Amino acid sequence: MKYLMMIFLGSFVSLSAKEYRIDQKNKKFSRDEITIKAGDKIRFRNSDPFFHNVYSLSPLKIFDLGSYSIGKSKTVKFNKPGVVEVNCAIHPNMKLKVRVKK
To answer: Quick one: average pLDDT of 38-56?
Structure first.
C-alpha cells in the first residue's frame, strides 16, 4: 500500500509541472529573465537561420544542448530552486536568467 501511494504522489507532482518556451531570434533569447517552479521545463527553440548552442555553467544546473539549427528545439528540466544563468556558446551576448522557485 505504501508503494502504491508513493507512485500516485510521484505522478501527481509531475503532472503539475509546466513547460515554457524561450525562442532564440535575432541573436537574442525572447526574454532576459524568467521565473519558474522547481520541476518545470524550458523548451529552447531556435528561430534564427543559423545555429545556437544553449548552455549553463551555473552550479545549480549545468548543461550544454549542443549546436542546433532553425526550427529545432531542446528541453531542459530545472529541479532545484535558485538562479541559473543561461548563455549561447556561439553568441556571447545572449543571456537568460532563470529563477527557479520551490
So the answer is: 97
pLDDT at 15: 60
Look at strands 33-37 and 61-68 and give their pairing.
unpaired
- Give the whole-angstrom CA distance, residue 81 versus residue 58: 12
With the CA atoms of 6, 7, 8 and 13 taken in that order, what torsion angle do they form, in degrees rounded to the nearest 10?
90
Quickly count: other Cβ atoms within 10 Å of residue 85's Cβ: 14
**Is the model more confident about 63 or about 4?**
63
Specify the pTM.
0.83
Cα(79)–Cα(14) distance, integer angstroms: 11
- In angstroms, the first-to-last Cα distance of the chain is 28
